[in-house]
Amino acid sequence: MARRRLVYEGKAKTIYAGPEPGTLVQHFKDDATAFNAEKHAIIDGKGVLNNFISEYVMTHLNSVGVPTHFIRRLNMREQLIREVEIIPLEVVVRNVAAGSIAKRLGIEEGTPLPRPIVEYYYKDDKLGDPMVAEEHIAAFNWATAQDLDDMVALALRVNDFLSGLFLGVGIKLVDFKIECGHIYDGDIPRVIVADEISPDSCRLWDVKSGQKFDKDVFRRDLGDLMDGYTEVATRLGVMPEKSIVRSGGPKLVH
User: Fold this and answer.
1) Four-residue CA torsion sign, 191, 60, 64, 204
2) Are 239 and 56 within 8 A, CB to CB?
3) CATH superfamily to which 6-83+225-241 belongs
4) Which residues pair with 120 in a beta bridge?
5) Are 96 and 113 in contact (CB under 8 A)?
6) The domain 85-206: what is its CATH number?
7) pLDDT tens digits for range 86-121
8) Cross-strand bridge partners of residue 16
9) Residues in CB range of 93: below 8 A, 6 or more apart
10) Gap between the Cα atoms of 208 and 194, Å rounded
C-alpha cells in the first residue's frame, strides 16, 4: 500500500492528500484535548464516533442546501472531503450561556440568551485562539466583509438546522463552532462549511436532565466522555458496532 502524503496534523484530526485532485482524506483521531491541549488523553473509539456523527450532520446540511466540504465517509475513521482554503477564524454561535461567555459576562450557566450570539475567534494555538472583533478581522485581512457576511449566514443556517435536529432527539444545542473555507467556481471564491461538526465542537445537553454529552465531560472531569458521545450517536441513529468503536479505556498523555 502506498504511503499517503501528510498535509496537516491537528489535535483531533489528521489530513492526508486525497485520491483525486481537489480532495483530501480527513482522519479522526482518538485524542481528547482541553485548555489549548494542556489536558490531553487518548480515548479509545472517540474518533470513530466523531466520524459517524459528523458524517450524519454534514450529509444532512448538504441535503438542505448548506454547502460543506464533506463528500463521503470512507471507513470507520476517515472521510473524503473537498480541499478548501481555510479562513483562519472560528465562528461560534451561542444559544445558551455556557463556558467562556458565562465567565466573561457573569451570566449563570444555562441561562437562555435573548437571541443567537455570533462570536469570532482567531485560529492560532500559540495564542489560545483569542476572541476577535470584526475590526480586527478587517484590519489584519483575515477575511473580507463578504466572507464575514457569508460565514454568519452559514452559521445561523447551521444553528437553525442543528437546533431542530438535536431537539428532535431530546438534546439541547447550547452552542457550537464551525470553520469555513473557500472553494473556487472558476476565479470566484465561495465560502462553505469545513472541519467537523461533532460533540467535540458543540455543547449538547439533555433537554430534561441537563446532562452534558460533549467535551465538557472531559474538561470538567464529569465522567466517561465516551458515554456522552455514544448517547449522541445512539439518539441520532448512527451508532456503529460497539466492538469496533472501543476496545479499552482512556489513556492519559503527559
Assistant:
1) negative
2) no
3) Phosphorylase Kinase; domain 1 (3.30.200.20)
4) 91, 132
5) yes
6) 3.30.470.20
7) 999 999 999 999 999 999 999 999 999 999 999 999
8) 6, 25
9) 116, 117, 118, 155, 156, 158, 159, 175, 176, 177, 178
10) 31
